[in-house]
Amino acid sequence: ECETVLRQLSDTQQFIEFMSEEQTPARDPSLHFKFKHVVFQHSVRKHLTPTSKRETSSKVASAIEAEFPDRAAQNSDEVAALYAMAGDDRKEGEYRARAARQQLSLGGYPMAIKSARRAAALFAKNQLDGDAAAYRDNMVVLGVCLTALNGYANEEAQEAYRKSLEIAAEAKLPEHFPSRYGVWMYNLVRGR
User: Fold this and answer.
1) Residue 83 to residues 52, 125, 135, 148, Cα–Cα distance (Å)
2) How many CA atoms lie within 13 A of 154 on its CB side?
3) Is the pLDDT of residue 103 over 90?
4) How far is CA 169 from CA 82, 93, 119, 164, in A?
């Protein structure tokens, strides 16, 4: 039924374009369309109800994870945004932390800081037991990025390193050397 409506839109309105037809694993036909312009896509999304938007975003993010795990890993920021729209704080935090690591590896410190701060806020808010190692690692990424941009004397970087050590101690996890080194360099630079 949905595909019939999409086919009509493709034929009459020129908002979308038919791309291909494939079979699902259950051998049902599946038609693939794409929006001709992102403005149309945003217009359709704008008219979704909040509940529908959450459900759709969750389904899309889950499908990307299941069907294209490599793409989900490469596009962590986009998958995190989908989970944010879905209201899934745990998955958003996981993907924001991944995005921060990717951005750090590419030298994109401002973006990595933004992603790491959001992930840290989500980890702190949800206090998820299984995510202690991810939370600790995210704080190291935040500290490294802040240090790279602002130097060892940066208060926020020192707080990120301290938080990493605190999380490691509370969860009985091993410390990361950059955290201990970051705190030591902060104190050295500050003359303490």
Assistant:
1) 14, 16, 18, 29
2) 16
3) yes
4) 33, 21, 20, 9
Q: How many CB atoms lie within 10 A of CB 66?
A: 9
Q: Which tens digits make up the pLDDT trace of 65-95?
A: 888 888 888 889 999 999 999 999 999 999 9
Helix 132-150 to helix 155-170 angle, to the nearest 10 degrees? 160
pTM: 0.73
Contact (Cβ atoms closer than 8 angstroms) between residue 85 and residue 104 = no
Residues 6 or more apart in contact with residue 41 via CB below 8 angstroms: 35
DSSP letters for 91-104 = HHHHHHHHHHHHHH
Nearest Cα residue to 129 out of 172, 165, 81 = 172
